[in-house]
């Protein structure tokens, strides 16, 4: 029996290790290749560079042109992503708290409708959103991206925050109300601080969603100075020639914030999913 359990653990460990290796191998290869000169990138694939160079990153950051300014693209992505995260936290916290404290909304179609919106094929919204923002003068404006990304992230984030608000005892709110605290004061001073792990998870999710989005940015943004990071990467892949070195380096700079932000808060996502799975 002991050897059987040991063998099963060994098989599971090896299987998981293989799967993880297959998942991280493309990212590892892109990271290593970003430090290779072009001749090594185009030659036979090797893991470690024979000639280490930072020229790809230098070209990406310092070789600016009126058409291509990658630091500016990253700044645009940062503004859009931070604004989206802030707006999503506000919208999702109010909506999630309302659903959590209202049994009819919680048991009815509202909570299910949030997940339905999350799985809705957003590509169907491209043309209507383009016409809407063009008619109100927000085409080729970063505000349009903030509005779209907030609308895309808010349903799932609201559903996720419901489980965090459900874990907060209502006795605390009732005690504060008896002491004379208003509903807004209870919400901002008691509920939100206790639900801070959920707010962090929601902010991270909405930031990552906005940071790497390409489809809506391609349709709603046209000028070079307003392009986001993913759109900036596309400028290195022309019809006749692909600048592989800067393209790989730019991919690393785009992926780096995602890993740095998501890994510390991943446990809060799991907590929210587990709470949502076992709640009545």
Q: Residue ranges: pLDDT <50 for 5 or more in a row?
A: 276-280
Helical residues, percent: over 70%
What's the mean pLDDT score? Answer: 83
Strand content: under 5%
**Order of SSEs, N→C?**
HHHHHHHHHHHHHH
Q: Which architecture name does CATH use?
A: Orthogonal Bundle
Count of individual beta strands: 0
For the record, give the distance between the C-alpha atoms at the N and C termini, rounded to a whole number.
Answer: 39 Å
Q: Structural class of the helix and strand makeup?
A: mainly alpha
CATH first level: Mainly Alpha
Overall geometric form: globular
Oligomeric status: single chain
**How large, in whole angstroms, is the Cα Rg?**
23 Å
CATH topology (level 3) name: MetI-like fold
Tally the structural domains: 1
Number of helices, counting only DSSP H or I runs of 4 residues or more: 14
Strand count, sense and closure of the main sheet?
none
CATH superfamily grouping: MetI-like
């Amino acid at each position: 029996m002991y050897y059987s359990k040991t063998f099963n653990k060994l098989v599971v460990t090896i299987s998981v290790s293989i799967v993880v290796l297959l998942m991280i191998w493309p990212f590892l290869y892109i990271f290593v290749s970003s430090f290779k000169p072009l001749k090594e990138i185009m030659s036979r694939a090797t893991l470690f560079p024979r000639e280490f160079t930072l020229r790809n990153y230098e070209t990406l950051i310092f070789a600016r042109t009126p058409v291509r300014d990658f630091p500016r693209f990253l700044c645009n992505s940062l503004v859009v992503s931070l604004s989206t995260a802030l707006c999503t936290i506000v919208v999702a916290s109010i909506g999630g708290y309302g659903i959590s404290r209202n049994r009819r909304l919680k048991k009815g179609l509202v909570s299910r409708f949030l997940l339905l919106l999350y799985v809705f094929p957003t590509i169907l919204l491209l043309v209507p959103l383009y016409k809407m923002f063009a008619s109100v003068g927000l085409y080729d404006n970063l505000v349009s991206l903030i509005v779209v990304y907030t609308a895309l992230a808010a349903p799932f984030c609201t559903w996720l925050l419901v489980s965090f608000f459900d874990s907060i005892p209502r006795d605390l709110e009732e005690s504060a109300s008896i002491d004379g605290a208003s509903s807004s004061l209870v919400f901002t001073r008691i509920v939100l601080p206790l639900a801070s792990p959920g707010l962090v998870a929601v902010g991270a999710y909405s930031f990552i969603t906005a940071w790497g989005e390409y489809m809506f940015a391609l349709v709603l943004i046209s000028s070079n100075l307003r392009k986001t990071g993913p759109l900036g990467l596309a400028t290195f892949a022309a019809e006749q020639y692909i600048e592989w070195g800067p393209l790989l380096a730019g991919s690393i700079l785009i992926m780096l914030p995602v890993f740095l932000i998501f890994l510390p808060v991943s446990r809060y996502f799991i907590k929210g999913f587990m709470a949502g799975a076992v709640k009545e």
